[in-house]
Specification:
By secondary structure, this protein is an alpha/beta fold. It is 48% helix and 10% strand. The protein has one domain (47-289, 325-408): TIM Barrel (Alpha-Beta Barrel), CATH 3.20.20.140. Bound molecules: zinc ion (ZN).
């Protein structure tokens, strides 16, 4: 956009007028606006890669056109553009319940990948699948949002290593080794029963080897400490935690990552991607949403709405937005803690948008990343550091994993 000479005169007059009303430096208004504006422009300028968003799972339950403002959930095209989000990793999530039925986990993974492909086929100007860091950069230079994919729960490969090649060919670039219960690969932090393998299984070791060979990132979110330690000892490439916050703030809760494991992930050259869900941020937030959900579900029942009806989805969204738990500052505390432990090069963001019920005030959907960036600016993070946190770190790790694969395949 250019400015004509007559509007230049007008602009000058406006500036003079503004000068007459120069803000009181003590009222704080101008610096605050400056920080938010800077955060907005930084978030738009830098590549923003989110490690984990459950849009496929959400749309599988209740399909809405994601290029429009959707009534349910945290991510759609307008929200991504408003929030500066360039590349949300689409979670290809396999529920634990399917693990007992041979064939079902793989079938679910394939059907969710089909769904992502359907989105990009129907809306090529808004969404494009990304299978490499270069894809992400290229797509980010257009108006489209890049959709890389990660599989949440290695049960999707069943007991056949060849399925790793199948899913690599379909675009999967990380695998979260377990989810809600122990599986054939290793043990899950969410499983209350005794460990099945005391870490990685013998099959799991071969899975890591094959993931390294293909160039699929190893994701240690959701696994037990012993499984993460084994995976880190086994891998030849950097590992990620696609959506884990710091256990330091939720003592004893194994789903969040310990200080020791944050250091070990960093030692591989990897990245811990801090997640936003309220229950991950402080122990005292853990059960705060239970009564809210109970009341919400009772209301949905009393109205006779089916769980996946438009009415129920819209109502749930309203309740979620009206009941944030925690704050942007809480998330920034986790980032500070991880950065203090291992430095700026090994920390990123993995919101778990569309995958959790309660989110903090100011970080409730994909349009809200600038609020977190504003908080980081207030805490003294530099432009360069913010660029690393938002996406440069995970893209570096992804490239290193691809380079390791080239070497292992004898091409490097
Ligand atoms: Zn998860």
């Amino acid at each position: 956009m250019s400015i004509s000479s007559s509007s230049s005169v007008f602009l000058l007059a406006a500036l003079v007028l503004l000068g007459c009303q120069s803000p009181n430096p003590d009222d704080g208004a101008t610096p605050k606006q400056d920080v938010q504006a800077r955060a907005d422009s930084l978030t738009q300028a830098h590549l923003l890669v989110d490690g984990h968003i459950d849009l496929p799972y959400r749309l599988n339950d209740f399909y809405e056109n994601p290029t429009d403002t959707t009534i349910g959930g945290d991510l759609d095209y307008p929200k991504a553009k408003a929030g500066g989000l360039d590349a949300p990793f689409m979670s290809i999530y396999i529920p634990t319940e399917l693990q007992g039925t041979p064939g079902a986990p793989k079938e679910r993974a394939d059907s969710l990948i089909d769904l992502v492909e359907r989105i990009v086929d129907e809306h090529p100007d808004q969404f494009t699948i990304a299978t490499s860091p270069d894809d992400v950069r290229r797509i980010a230079s257009t108006d489209a949002v890049a959709l890389p994919m990660g599989m949440e729960n290695g049960a999707g490969i069943e007991d056949d290593l060849d399925n790793l090649q199948h899913f690599y060919d379909r675009g999967i670039r990380y695998i979260t080794l377990t989810h809600g219960t122990h599986n054939k690969i290793g043990d899950s932090s969410y499983d209350d029963s005794d460990p099945r393998w005391n870490g990685l299984s013998p099959f799991g070791e071969r899975v890591i080897d094959e993931m390294n060979r293909l160039g699929i990132m190893v994701d240690v979110s959701h696994v037990t400490d012993a499984t993460a330690e084994d995976a880190i000892a086994r891998t030849e490439a950097p590992v990620i935690a696609s959506h884990s916050s710091c256990r330091h703030f939720t003592p004893g809760w194994e789903r969040n990552i310990s200080d020791d494991l944050i250091k070990r992930v960093a030692d591989t050259g990897g990245v811990v991607m801090i997640t936003f869900g309220s229950s991950f941020l402080r122990s005292e937030y853990r059960d705060q949403d239970d009564p809210i959900r109970e009341k919400m579900n009772a209301h949905i029942d009393s109205m006779g709405w089916a769980e996946d009806s438009q009415e129920a989805v819209a109502y749930e969204e309203k309740v979620r937005k009206e009941n944030p738990i925690g704050s942007v500052e809480d998330v920034a505390d986790h980032i500070d803690h991880a950065v203090d432990l291992v430095g700026i090069d090994h920390v990123g963001l993995g919101s778990d948008f569309d995958g959790v019920f309660a989110l903090p005030n100011g970080l409730q959907d994909a349009s809200d990343y600038p609020n977190l960036v504003a908080e980081l600016l207030r805490r003294g993070y530099t432009d360069k550091e913010i660029e690393k946190l938002l996406g440069a770190n995970v893209l570096r790790v992804w490239s290193e994993v691809a380079t390791t694969a080239q070497r292992l395949q004898g091409n490097g």
